[in-house]
């Protein structure tokens, strides 16, 4: 297929993706499930071309923006509070699942090298942030569970990719030194942490000096690739570099971006991430088609693939429950007796967290990037696809039922700080804006000049009507009106950030109220033009 043909085929895939998304909304399916099923249907359609996919290109195109997006929108306060639990899942859970899958794969496929088994384990070990958020936004969960799931799916990508790289290197070179691997892992992680922080700091300084929204959005879109490629070129973890850069930029976004830039950037980024995520799901279906063609039908699949893949999927599901049981049991054992949850609360936590193990985009991107020299590469790709299919379709569509059956946890467990609601935070912001407006409403001689602004929309409507007839006479008052309005918005934004940074409101409340202030600011700035 020519390059023009490939481009046209990708455009056709994007059209099909839009249709699958609409079907998912109509049938109330998780979008990932519809895309997986759509990928299977596309793979089985007669006449579908076989597209050769460059493994290195897959990683560098898809992974950086998806990693930075997950980090940028992470809940920072909750992430920091539950960091130990997140690391237990993201690092310990990935390592445990990798070992379990490697041992099971070696037993089921004795001819497969240990390093290749470990590589497969690292590929299917990390739960996916995209799949988790797509499912969890429709089911209510306590804050601790949501934070653990989203934080785990953010950091476990880095852990699994590092393990995958070491295992792949061992397969290709035939040698592996555990001590050297552990030391290298430490320096890769530390170097990525430092480089990600430095890059984010440099980017923030540049963005504060670029006041053109097109350039600002373009620079932000470049950051994930700059971080990932820069980390790999320097010799540290490009994944950790990208994640750290996203975390820092997400934390400072409120100071860096104007209201117009933030709203436009969010829209651009949302479309980009949607297209990339969807394309990965579809591309794995096309890769499956190529695998079946290479083995001349389904006989090979039935004889040599079904049993090993079924065993691998079972181990992936069971190992997560075992790890949750061990880690949560250890945590509860060290709690004071008065703070320990009852058996119902403990079993509910283990059941829900164990069932929220949907795999997705990152696993797909890694398995597509397997080098051609990897032993049993086709089986590894099929196993990964089936793991994603089972977890997204089965777990993703039944997680709401599991939550209802187990009873979940109380919304505000004892000892957890209570956050202000949206209405409470809005009242405090409105009070700070009123205070700022009362200081600006009076001229130095004590005469009120913005009485109608204090009455909000009535005065603004009257001013707009008068301005249309007496533009020259009212230009000064019009400018003063919108400048005063901008001052009150700045006061409200400062109060909102104070509430967030002091931990009194959740990130979800921050984003909702900041969006409202951004819209107000765009309207006021438009009035000054």
Automatic annotation (TrEMBL):
<keyword id="KW-0739">Sodium transport</keyword>
<feature type="transmembrane region" description="Helical">
    <location>
        <begin position="271"/>
        <end position="293"/>
    </location>
</feature>
<dbReference type="GO" id="GO:0005886">
    <property type="term" value="C:plasma membrane"/>
</dbReference>
<keyword id="KW-1003">Cell membrane</keyword>
<dbReference type="GO" id="GO:0051453">
    <property type="term" value="P:regulation of intracellular pH"/>
</dbReference>
<feature type="domain" description="Cation/H+ exchanger transmembrane">
    <location>
        <begin position="13"/>
        <end position="403"/>
    </location>
</feature>
<feature type="transmembrane region" description="Helical">
    <location>
        <begin position="382"/>
        <end position="403"/>
    </location>
</feature>
<keyword id="KW-0813">Transport</keyword>
<dbReference type="InterPro" id="IPR006153">
    <property type="entry name" value="Cation/H_exchanger_TM"/>
</dbReference>
<dbReference type="GO" id="GO:0015385">
    <property type="term" value="F:sodium:proton antiporter activity"/>
</dbReference>
<feature type="transmembrane region" description="Helical">
    <location>
        <begin position="305"/>
        <end position="326"/>
    </location>
</feature>
<keyword id="KW-0472">Membrane</keyword>
<keyword id="KW-0915">Sodium</keyword>
<feature type="transmembrane region" description="Helical">
    <location>
        <begin position="57"/>
        <end position="79"/>
    </location>
</feature>
<dbReference type="Pfam" id="PF00999">
    <property type="entry name" value="Na_H_Exchanger"/>
</dbReference>
<dbReference type="GO" id="GO:0098719">
    <property type="term" value="P:sodium ion import across plasma membrane"/>
</dbReference>
<feature type="transmembrane region" description="Helical">
    <location>
        <begin position="225"/>
        <end position="251"/>
    </location>
</feature>
<feature type="transmembrane region" description="Helical">
    <location>
        <begin position="86"/>
        <end position="107"/>
    </location>
</feature>
<feature type="transmembrane region" description="Helical">
    <location>
        <begin position="346"/>
        <end position="370"/>
    </location>
</feature>
<dbReference type="GO" id="GO:0015386">
    <property type="term" value="F:potassium:proton antiporter activity"/>
</dbReference>
<keyword id="KW-0812">Transmembrane</keyword>
<keyword id="KW-1133">Transmembrane helix</keyword>
<feature type="transmembrane region" description="Helical">
    <location>
        <begin position="31"/>
        <end position="51"/>
    </location>
</feature>
<keyword id="KW-0406">Ion transport</keyword>
<feature type="transmembrane region" description="Helical">
    <location>
        <begin position="182"/>
        <end position="204"/>
    </location>
</feature>
<protein>
    <submittedName>
        <fullName>Sodium:proton antiporter</fullName>
    </submittedName>
</protein>
<feature type="transmembrane region" description="Helical">
    <location>
        <begin position="6"/>
        <end position="24"/>
    </location>
</feature>
<dbReference type="InterPro" id="IPR018422">
    <property type="entry name" value="Cation/H_exchanger_CPA1"/>
</dbReference>
């Amino acid at each position: 297929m020519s390059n023009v043909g490939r481009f046209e085929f990708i455009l056709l895939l994007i059209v099909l993706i839009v249709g699958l998304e609409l079907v998912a909304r109509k049938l109330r399916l998780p979008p990932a499930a519809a895309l997986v099923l759509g990928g299977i249907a596309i793979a089985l359609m007669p006449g579908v071309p076989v597209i050769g996919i460059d493994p290195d290109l897959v990683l560098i195109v898809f992974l950086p923006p998806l990693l930075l997006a997950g980090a940028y929108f992470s809940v920072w306060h909750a992430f920091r509070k539950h960091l130990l639990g997140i690391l237990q899942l993201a690092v310990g859970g990935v390592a445990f699942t990798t070992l379990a899958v490697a041992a099971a794969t070696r037993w089921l496929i004795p001819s497969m090298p240990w390093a290749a088994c470990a590589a497969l384990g690292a590929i299917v070990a990390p739960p996916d942030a995209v799949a988790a958020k797509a499912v969890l936004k429709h089911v209510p969960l306590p804050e601790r569970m949501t934070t653990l799931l989203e934080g785990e799916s953010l950091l476990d990508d880095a852990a699994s990719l590092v393990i995958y790289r070491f295992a792949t290197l061992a397969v290709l070179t035939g040698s592996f030194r555990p001590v050297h691997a552990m030391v290298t892992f430490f320096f890769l992680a530390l170097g990525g942490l430092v480089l990600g922080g430095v890059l984010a700091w440099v980017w923030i300084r540049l963005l504060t000096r670029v006041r053109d929204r097109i350039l600002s959005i373009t620079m932000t879109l470049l950051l994930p690739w700059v971080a990932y490629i820069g980390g790999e070129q320097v010799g540290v973890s490009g994944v950790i570099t990208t994640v750290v850069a996203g975390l820092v930029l997400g934390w400072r976004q409120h100071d860096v971006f104007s209201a117009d830039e933030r709203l436009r950037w969010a829209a651009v980024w949302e479309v980009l991430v949607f297209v990339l995520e969807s394309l990965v799901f579809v591309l794995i279906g096309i890769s499956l088609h190529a695998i079946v063609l290479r083995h001349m039908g389904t006989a090979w699949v039935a004889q040599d693939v079904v049993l090993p893949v079924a065993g691998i999927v079972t181990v992936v599901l069971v190992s997560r429950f075992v790890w949750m049981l061990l880690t949560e049991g250890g945590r509860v054992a060290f709690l004071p007796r008065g703070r320990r949850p009852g058996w119902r609360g403990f079993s509910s936590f283990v059941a829900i967290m164990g069932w929220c193990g949907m795999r997705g985009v990152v696993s797909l991107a890694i398995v597509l990037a397997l080098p051609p020299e990897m032993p049993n590469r086709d089986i590894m790709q099929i196993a990964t696809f089936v793991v994603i299919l089972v977890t997204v379709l089965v777990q993703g569509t039944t997680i709401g039922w599991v939550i209802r059956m187990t009873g979940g946890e109380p919304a505000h467990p004892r000892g957890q700080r209570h956050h202000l609601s949206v209405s409470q935070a809005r009242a405090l912001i409105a009070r700070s804006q009123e205070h700022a407006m009362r200081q600006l409403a009076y001229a130095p001689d004590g005469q009120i000049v913005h009485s109608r602004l204090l009455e909000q929309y009535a005065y603004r409507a009257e001013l707009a009507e008068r301005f249309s007839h007496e533009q020259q006479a009212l230009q000064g008052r019009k400018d003063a009106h919108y400048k005063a309005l901008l001052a009150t918005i700045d006061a409200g934004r400062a109060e909102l950030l104070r509430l967030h940074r002091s931990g009194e409101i959740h990130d979800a409340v921050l984003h909702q109220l900041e969006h409202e202030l951004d819209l107000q600011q765009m309207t006021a700035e438009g009035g000054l033009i």
